[in-house]
Amino acid sequence: MSHREPSELAREAGAKLREVLAAGPLNPKDRMAIPAQEMPVQDHVDRRGNMNEVALGYTPEQARLEAMRCLQCRNKPCVAGCPVAIDIPAFLKAVADGDPRAAIDIIRRNSLLPAVCGRVCPQESQCQEPCTVGKALKNVDKAVSIGRIERFAADMEAAAGTPDVPEVKPETGRRVAVIGSGPASITVAADVRREGHAVTVFEAFHKPGGVLLYGIPEFRLPKSIVEREIAALKAMGVVIRTNFVVGRTRKLSDLVSKDGFDAVFVGTGAGLPKFMGIPGENLVGVFSANEFLTRSNLMRAFDRARADTPICNCRKVAVLGGGNVAMDAARTAVRLGADEVHLVYRRTEAEMPARIEEVGHAKEEGVVFHTLVNAKRFLGDSYGCVRHMECLRYELGEPDNSGRRRPVEIPGSEFMMDLDTVIVAIGNESNPLIRQTTPGLGFNKWGNIVADDDGRTSLPNVFAGGDIVLGAATVILAMGQGRKAAQAINSMLAAAPKT
Amino acid sequence: MENSNTVLFRKELAPDVYQIRVHAPLIASERRPGQFVIVQVDSDFGERVPLTIADADPAEGSITLVVQAVGKTTHRLADIPVGEGIANLLGPLGTPTHIERFGRVVCVGGGIGVAPLHPIAKAMKEAGNHVTTIIGARNQSLLIFVEEMSRISDEVIICTDDGSAGRKALVTHPLKELCETAPKPDCVVAIGPPVMMKFCAETTRPYGVHTIVSLNTIMVDGTGMCGGCRVTVGNETKFVCVDGPEFDGHKVDFDNMMQRLGAYRKHEASAHEQCHLDMEASRLEERRRADGK
């Protein structure tokens, strides 16, 4: 894909918008004829050397044009595709009419984190997947770019200055503890605080934000956006206690029985990296994606001159996995100056769970994709450092339980790759800390907390949501669960009078 | 109750080895022997370093840490004056030591490993065990916690490499003798440099004496999230931060662990050197200012 200058995209969009506006009211055919707006991005050579955000965001003209492509169809398939059911046609209409402020108000009725979700949601498999425009053009890539427009509206709001602090009802005297500070927890904290309940967020790290901070790199989600969301919580009166790991610093049950919290929400995420259990995986130079990304993102090891936390001088890197985390790790390795970055995935590109945009960006940045390949073992040198990876080739067999065709190894297809760094990005298991220290809390066989649709767990007054319930999922699903749990907490507190 | 992380007391125990007491009531009341904390001296660019808790006083709301200034972060930590706070302190982390009445317990501490051994030996004694403590150091000036350990042990054996105090021997010599003497130990707890723990485990292996070691590996979060601390124990991958820090010494792959500990040695060496240059520069600056007056 050739890189197009943002200025050129802006100029084209400006001209087209004038033309469209001059032509008068649009019929569906006119809307379909508006060209899909390309996201302006940093040049792919330049961006290999910096951590700045890659996607630069639509210009106002581009956003209006893209929003005008929406047919405002009556059955709204996009809304059904959105895990939190944002009224998408309504906010698109507001942007098309040149009123992004109205758009953001519509989005905020259902979503608390539009600037985040506009950037990190897998829209092509959610709201944009069933879009009528994409269906009519027989190409999901030609669907209305709902996520980019959402991001535009959120960024316009931020650019206009500090948003109003959401209204907080008079203090109720009730107290709610929120464990973790990722997307599910941020949502619960805001929604519960709005009802006038005192909220304390407990975060184990020294900075709040959870996976938004330590996991997703700056080039995909600028940290200033996460900081803004946290600042908004604090402005509402939410108390955030960092360096506090519930289960160890204080037991969950003590929060209820000794510290007087009326309800607890557990949103601790999926925090235990999976390894493959193959020979050599503990050699020096083999990392979990969590470790590699945390060093770079939270600990700022990317800034080698200033950060005390080191990160490896990787030259030839293999990243194992095909999700967003794998893409983030591969693209971080590129930015750290690796000569070669190889992405190894045992299925085909069609089965990759990563967002299409991230796959495209990774390729543009020079990441080499090896599909239908998997690691068999790692071999090291006399210093215990990884030097080679023996791989096996795979082919797709019958569909498995997930509906995806099962990769089957081809006997005798072994081959070697030379490398000095391996990053394992094959997912996370749930963190055992709360499980080990909270008797009575129900977990399933994968270690996830068992919760009903409203986030209720087996313990009274204890709710849970996000990846600790779902397994590894997405920001928007975590947020959706947070919304429901917050509602359940609020109604529980409203129903039970303060004693 | 909140941890202020204020340094309440600070003392140099041996060259470059500091004992610091920190106001952290939450940690002081929850911690158990064998647990550790993560310390960070600068929120933006600092490194997160695991340190084992040497003692705690729930009444005062304080914990005691023993720090060997071996790198930039530990130097800066050891330099924090009384009354000032540590930027970030997280804990207590890790699975507490399994304490029970084994019978005869031998506690082996090497270098600053004696500090984290102290609460374990104390708990073993309180559980009704006969506790023999072996303390090892390169020379007399590097011996720490001798008095504290003497108070809680039935017997203390001191070893130095140069014979400047106690026996001129490695800790493995008296350990071997104890294993050969009836009644032989029921349990050994060894904490110190990796190579010492490795050879303690090798020493007790032929006698089939259960040997616990406490590992101090490289960590980022300390709560199971990064996996940087993983070690091979009995051919299985374990996380020191949540599965440990204590493991069966006969099953730990020490060679792999030592290689992993060295992963950033070059980086650490240059950061350490730069840190010394900075400290020297500030000393010179101070002297220049003093001379100017």
State the gist of this model.
The complex is a heterodimer of chains A (about 500) and B (about 290). Chain A has about 500 residues and is α/β, with parallel strands linked by helices.
CATH class of the largest domain in chain A: Alpha Beta
DSSP E strands of chain A, number? 16
List SSEs of chain B in N-to-C order.
EEHEEEHEEHEHEEHEHEEEHEHH
Largest interface pair: A-B, 44 and 47 residues
Give the class-level CATH name of the largest domain in chain B: Alpha Beta
CATH names the topology of the largest domain in chain A as FAD/NAD(P)-binding domain
End-to-end distance of chain A, in Å?
A: 64 Å
Description of the molecule:
The complex is a heterodimer of chains A (499) and B (293). Chain A is an alpha/beta fold and 499 residues long. Helix content of chain A is 35%, strand content 15%. Chain A has 19 helices and 16 strands. In chain A, helix 5 packs across helix 9 (146-159), helix 7 runs antiparallel to helix 9 (146-159) and helix 14 crosses helix 15. The mean pLDDT of chain A is 93. In chain B, helix 5 runs parallel beside helix 6 (194-204). The model of chain B has no long low-confidence stretch (mean pLDDT 92). The interface between A and B is large, with 44 and 47 residues.
